[in-house]
Specification:
InterPro entries: Arc_rbn_hlx_hlx, FitA-like_RHH, Ribbon_hlx_hlx. With about 80 residues, the protein is mainly alpha-helical. It is built from five helices and no strands.
């Protein structure tokens, strides 16, 4: 098995890791491995892909699609 050494960990982050490991009843190494495994289970999406996805969604907002916003609908309903 490979060994990974991480340097220059901010003190606050190190303390948070130690605290979480203790709360979960794990060693610090086991907790770090657990966190890494969970993070890597999610599909990787680059920042570029995420930005493209956000921009695509913004094109279909109700205001741009000609649909009144929920705020406009509420105001109209209350004024009746």
């Amino acid at each position: 098995m490979a060994t990974l050494h991480v340097r220059n960990i901010p003190d606050k982050l190190y303390e948070e890791l130690k605290s979480r490991a203790k709360a979960e009843g794990r060693s610090l190494s086991t907790e770090v491995l657990y966190i890494l495994k969970r993070a890597l289970r999610r599909p990787y999406r680059s920042q570029k892909d995420l930005l493209k996805s956000i921009q695509r969604r913004q094109r279909f907002t109700p205001a741009k699609a000609g649909t009144p916003s929920s705020l406009e609908l509420l105001r109209e309903d209350r004024s009746r």
